[in-house]
Give the backbone structure.
Amino acid sequence: MTSFDYASDYFWRLAMAHDPKALMQLELHPGLNCGLYRCQYCFGHGQALNPGRYLSAEEYDAIAASLGELRPTVIVSGIATEPLTHHEPAGMLQAFRRRGFPVGLYTKGHNLTADVREALVDGPGECFVTVSLDAGTSADYDRVHNVALSRNELLVRTASFEHVLDNLRSLSALKRKAKPDLKLRASILVFEEMAHPGKLANAVRLLQDDVDLIRVAIAQDRNDGQRVDTLPQDRDVLLSRFAAEFTDNPKVAILMNSHTPTRNTAFKHCIAQRTQVTIDKSGNVFPCPQVALAPYQHLRIGNVRETPLPEILVSAKRQTMFGLDIDTEMKCRICDRKDETINSAVEGHLEVFNDPSRGV
């Protein structure tokens, strides 16, 4: 005897019926480079950006305006660059903040200048900022981020641990004054340096008065599959130790399994792309953040300089991609944790939906 799986029927039909215009997430990769940072654990390490001139703040404003009443969450990040190395970062952020888009910024923090900070608090709607520190001392910071030597004193000062802390504290003060609901977070990826007893506690003491949350995790593998050799040994034991140490601190979140994506090969189609797109620094539109790089130009859906974003969202090319096999046609099994979770879950509903033994 079989019974009808109402949940799988509902979730699969819901995924298939989603309006391709109704984005849930728009990710922007506006960065030019990473300044003096040469992080060996960078997820897009060694992968070239797509060629083309950079989008201007005016062009970002046109993208925001083109979405009309739609308000997807706008993530400003970068798979291989620092987003705030864009030549007009404040204008780019204002294009979305002033229209009330939910905006999330992921940054190293060295370019959190006064005009950028003002742009982040200028407008209604949700805004969250995550500053990636990964260290609690200047020496560890330079080593973990492989900060390059330079004769340019301004660049050296800008990339310093002390400067990043100053920027974070300035944003914290502005948040309290102008937008208390802005969520300010610090991110710490744990390398060998931070694994030493007391190092994480010192970093937490430096940060906790100025941030809403400190996220602690171990870096996941890079996009190219290589694992850096500075990751700590006995990771599960280390994370368990941290979890016990900070169990009473509500501002510290220890992510226990973020470094171990399952690399699930059971799902064959990308469902997550139905609700998101990523725009690279030159206006190229891709189905997800992981593929907005030169090795994946075959997955380029269009360019906002040539076609308005709403038209790209409903284009035949994008909708055809919904049905492509990830391994044989898209050739991009590099999902991040979020997309892998979504794809695994929804494809599981598909398997039940198509099971010939299901009853009514």
